[in-house]
């Protein structure tokens, strides 16, 4: 498998940011790395791209360990919050510099995207607004053409129109030259339909790692009079519930047997599933 | 098209294609949108779009022309119509009768209502 993450642990002083994470990222799929703030998403992506070293564990890319391995690390690109270029460099020169580090960087395409997003390439990076600073980094990622492409909270600070543009351009790009994409986000509803495989991380541990559809396939929500709902969910795996007057709604995981009269069944979307799962973990 | 959250998107893609074939938006022997077009337009993973389109290929409603894309099969519209008639009974008639019973409507009363529905539709 292209990327094998084995038993990765990362400590920052007393804080364990990642706790024995083992994960495989396959070829040409779009992964969603989902988790609340502080779950360890950024740390994991930073380690995957050699920006940080793990306290323990190994990562291999196409069979080669990434540690001190420029060739392997050159195959991956991370779009993150930090800017890698000197602040007083302008966008145009930054594109030029990116082409030096990443031979497959497509400057023509980057310029085209800059025009599409309305990013002024003569501007200095430090003078870009929050939104345009994000767009600048996204364009780098979309133009770099590495086989592994990681986005850490890619749409922070972007307005609705630009977010929409980013998702479409990413899919266009992905269709044209498939690569392994990991999108880390806590904006789950927006990314839900983009991703093929979901990895849910919580407190530095992998909670779920499966095709996105499977995640919600056997989860459902049932609502109705509290007494009836309680009777129905007894003995079932209840992720979360809420009560509104006499009406109770419960999110349940597992097979659903025949529903008694008076109860209503509905499927649950990825975001609701995620929230329910987090609530269940909170109770533990 | 906006997707309903409760149902798998690949099914909704398949249904939308079927609607298009039935309505004539995608005539027989004409090309349907590509997986990439579906993916980008609806912001969905291409694998999801492929899954939806594959359902119609498996049903013999679409066929692949190598290097060109997906096309509507000859006879697809008629095939769909007959499938839909069966579904219509299950999805609408069975429910209609059940609800009619709840409301104490008799069969002749229901028939009269359906006839009125046809008349109203013709007038509009």
Task: Describe the protein.
The complex is a heterodimer of chains A (284) and B (124). In chain A, 34% of the residues lie in helices and 31% in strands. Chain A is of the alpha/beta class and 284 residues long. The two termini of chain A are 34 Å apart. The mean pLDDT of chain A is 92. Chain B is mainly α. Chain B has helices at 9-23, 35-42, 46-58, 76-102, 107-123; strands at residues 62-65, 69-72. Chain B has a two-stranded antiparallel ribbon. In chain B, a hairpin with a 3-residue loop joins strand 1 (62-65) and strand 2 (69-72). The two termini of chain B are 25 Å apart. The model of chain B has no long low-confidence stretch (mean pLDDT 92). The interface between A and B is medium-sized, with 19 and 18 residues.
SSE order of chain B: HHHEEHH
The helix content of chain B, as a percent range, equals: 55-70%
> Total strand count of chain A, please?
14
- The separation of the N and C termini of chain A measures 34 Å
List SSEs of chain A in N-to-C order. Answer: EEEHEEHEHHHEHEHEEHEHEEEH
Biggest β-sheet of chain B, characterized? 2 strands, antiparallel
Number of helices of chain B: 5
What is the helix fraction of residues of chain A, given as a range? Answer: 25-40%
C-alpha termini separation of chain B: 25 Å
How large is the count of helical segments of chain A?
10
Write down the overall mean pLDDT of chain A: 92
- Rounded to the nearest angstrom, the radius of gyration of chain A is 21 Å
Largest chain interface and its two residue counts? A-B, 19 and 18 residues
Coarse morphology of chain B:
elongated
How much of the sequence lies in strands of chain A comes to 25-35%
Shape of chain A: globular
Q: Which residue ranges of chain B are poorly predicted, with pLDDT under 50 across at least 5 consecutive positions?
A: none
């Amino acid at each position: 498998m292209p990327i094998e993450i084995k038993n990765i642990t990362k400590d920052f002083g007393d804080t364990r940011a990642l706790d024995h994470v083992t994960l495989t990222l396959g070829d040409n799929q779009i992964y969603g790395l989902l988790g609340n703030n502080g779950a360890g998403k950024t740390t994991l992506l930073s380690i995957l791209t050699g920006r940080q070293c793990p306290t323990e564990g190994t990562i291999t890319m196409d069979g080669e360990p990434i540690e001190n391995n420029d060739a392997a690390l050159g195959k991956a690109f991370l779009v993150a919050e930090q800017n890698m270029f000197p602040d007083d460099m302008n966008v145009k020169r930054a594109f030029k510099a990116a082409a030096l580090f990443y031979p497959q960087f497509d400057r023509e395409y980057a310029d085209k995207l800059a025009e599409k997003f309305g990013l002024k390439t003569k501007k200095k990076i430090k003078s870009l607004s929050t939104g345009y600073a994000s767009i600048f980094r996204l364009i780098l990622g979309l133009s770099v053409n590495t086989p592994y492409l990681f986005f850490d909270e890619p749409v922070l600070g972007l307005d609705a129109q630009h977010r929409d543009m980013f998702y479409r351009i990413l899919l266009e790009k992905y269709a044209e030259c498939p690569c392994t994409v990991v999108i880390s986000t806590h904006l789950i509803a927006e990314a839900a339909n983009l991703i093929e495989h979901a990895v849910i991380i919580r407190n530095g541990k992998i909670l779920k790692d499966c095709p996105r559809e499977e995640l919600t396939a056997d989860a459902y929500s049932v609502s109705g009079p509290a007494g009836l709902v309680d009777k129905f969910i007894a003995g079932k795996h209840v992720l979360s519930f809420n009560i509104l007057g006499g009406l109770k709604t419960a999110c349940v995981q597992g097979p659903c047997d025949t529903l008694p009269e008076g109860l209503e069944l509905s499927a649950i979307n990825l975001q609701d599933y995620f929230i329910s799962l987090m609530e269940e973990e909170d109770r533990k | 098209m906006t997707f309903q959250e409760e149902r798998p998107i690949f099914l909704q893609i398949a249904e939308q294609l079927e609607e298009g074939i039935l309505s004539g938006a995608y005539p027989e022997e004409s090309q349907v949108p590509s997986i990439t077009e579906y993916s980008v337009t609806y912001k969905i993973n291409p694998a999801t779009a492929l899954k939806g389109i594959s359902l119609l290929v498996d049903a013999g409603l679409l066929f692949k022309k190598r290097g060109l894309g997906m096309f509507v099969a000859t006879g697809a519209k008629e095939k769909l119509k007959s499938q839909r008639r069966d579904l219509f009974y299950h999805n609408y008639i069975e429910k209609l009768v059940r609800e009619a019973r709840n409301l104490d409507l008799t069969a002749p009363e229901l028939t009269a209502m359906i006839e009125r529905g046809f008349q109203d539709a013709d007038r509009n």
